[in-house]
Write a structure and sequence with these properties.
Helix content: 25-40%
Order of helices and strands: HEEEEHEEHEEE
CATH architecture of the largest domain: Sandwich
Number of helices: 3
Radius of gyration: 33 Å
CATH topology of the largest domain: Immunoglobulin-like
Number of domains: 2
Number of strands: 9
Distance between the termini: 106 Å
Low-confidence stretches: 1-11, 13-21, 41-49
Strand content: 35-45%
Length: 206
């Protein structure tokens, strides 16, 4: 073997070593980049609300009924006095909620949110007692008298689905109600994130 051949062999081995080092370096960079990317993804998953919601639900039916009340114009002694006029819109919403978490959920409040003229007006839903008093005061409301989904009285166990009706009242005329821009409901759970549901069913005016 000539010196030339030996030198050639040594140069080839050195070249191979450089290629191996370069390849190892590239692999190391790829691993580091992948690790950083996974860390960033995990960070955003944990801190940007990408977790599944504690509950989901759907709105099954919505009924709206106007209530127009005028006082008689006389006081208890029969003396004339100015009449007072009250206009309200009762909004009955039949809803189904499902607890998809591993802990019980306690319903604290339900808000019906009405978008109108660049602002949002919210009304709390009636509790069980007030819900039943509505039917006593207005027995002829043409809306199904279904079971109530009552704030503070509703506990949803893991995997359980509950269904019922909530009712909210807005101080407005039928014309103001008809001019609304949007409608949704927010369900407030104790110590847990709230759930807002936008209906995909038409409002039934009664």
């Amino acid at each position: 073997m000539s010196l030339l051949q030996q030198d050639s062999t040594e140069q080839d081995d050195a070249a191979k070593g450089e290629e191996l080092t370069a390849g190892t370096s590239n692999i190391g960079k790829a691993v580091v980049i992948s690790t950083i990317a996974l860390s960033i993804a995990a960070f955003f998953y944990v801190y940007t609300g990408e977790k599944p919601p504690m509950a989901n639900g759907e709105i099954l039916n919505i009924w709206a009924h106007p209530i127009h009340t005028e006082t008689s114009g006389f006081d208890a002694n029969g003396a004339p006095m100015p009449k007072e006029i009250f206009d309200q819109m009762f909004v009955f919403t039949e809803v189904r909620l499902h607890n998809q978490s591993k802990i019980p959920l306690f319903l604290e409040n339900v808000l019906t949110n009405l978008s109108e003229q660049g602002k949002i007006t919210s009304s709390y839903a009636a509790n069980k007692g007030d819900y039943e008093r509505i039917w006593v005061a207005y027995p002829n409301i043409p809306v199904p008298h279904g079971p109530v989904l009552s704030p503070l009285d509703t506990e949803i166990q893991p995997g359980q689905t509950v269904q019922g009706t909530v009712v909210s009242a807005f101080k407005m005329t039928k014309q103001e109600w008809d001019a609304r821009k949007g409608l949704d409901l927010t369900f407030v759970f104790r110590y847990q994130p709230s759930l807002t549901i936008t209906p995909h069913v038409p409002v039934i005016d009664r």
